[in-house]
Design a protein that fits this description.
The chain has a single domain, classed as Rossmann fold (3-Layer(aba) Sandwich). It is about 50% helix and about 10% strand. It is built from nine helices and five strands. The chain has a five-stranded mixed beta sheet, sandwiched between helices. Helix 2 crosses helix 9, helix 5 runs parallel beside helix 9 and helix 6 runs parallel beside helix 7. The longest helix is centred in the N-terminal third of the chain and has 14 residues.
Length: about 200
């Protein structure tokens, strides 16, 4: 896949502004794309990669493991890149949520939809860019032994349960990429997947 000239120029600017750093090349390629999507240079120090996470993610994409996302913004952000790799669909948790007329006050629609998707795709690539409740639900299923993701991208953004969800993810032994603290979001999640696709 070719990088657009404007993207390449943006990467050059990011490289110049960051200067010398200690990130390994593949980690930096992922982080740089996230910075490109957000113009947030603090991400350089906030990204966490488990051992072998990038290799696991690249291998999973090469094998066309299903990519499951929490919200449509992430789905739209990665659709063209994954289509170029041969993907025909990207399941979104919101599309599998229970009827809005019968809400469950103990969870969110995104978390409920994600639980359904873990039953269909227990070894998929799970990408959480918005909903910490979905990430907590996924981690619970990992603890129960019901799901063994090939990779988890856990970068929800916000103030309620976000850091708790990321800490819960860090405590399970699955390949994972996350952004510490409150930062993250759909653009960051999309950038991570797109970077892995280019790698």
């Amino acid at each position: 896949m070719q990088i657009h000239p404007i993207t390449a120029e943006s990467f050059d600017i990011i490289d110049r502004e960051i200067g010398t750093h200690t990130r390994p090349p593949q980690e930096y390629a992922v982080i740089r794309r996230a910075i490109h999507a957000t113009a947030d240079f603090e991400l350089l120090d906030l990204f966490e990669f488990s051992s072998g996470a990038i290799a696991a993610g690249v291998a999973a994409l090469q094998a066309q493991n299903p990519v499951i996302v929490d919200v449509r913004m992430v789905q739209m952000g990665i659709s063209s890149t994954l289509k170029a790799l041969g993907y025909s669909q990207i399941p979104c948790a919101l599309d599998y949520a229970p009827d809005a007329e019968t809400p469950n006050l103990e969870t969110t629609r995104t978390a409920a939809g994600l639980l359904t998707l873990t039953q269909h795709y227990p070894t998929g690539i799970f990408v959480i860019g918005n909903a910490p409740t979905a990430l907590l639900a996924l981690v619970e299923q990992i603890h129960l032994g019901n799901v063994r993701p090939s990779l988890v991208v856990g970068v929800p953004v916000g103030f309620v349960a976000v850091e708790e969800a990321k800490q819960a993810l860090a405590a399970v032994e699955v390949p994972q990429i996350q952004v510490r603290g409150r930062k993250g979001g759909s653009a960051v999640a999309s950038a991570i997947v797109n970077a892995l696709a280019y790698l």
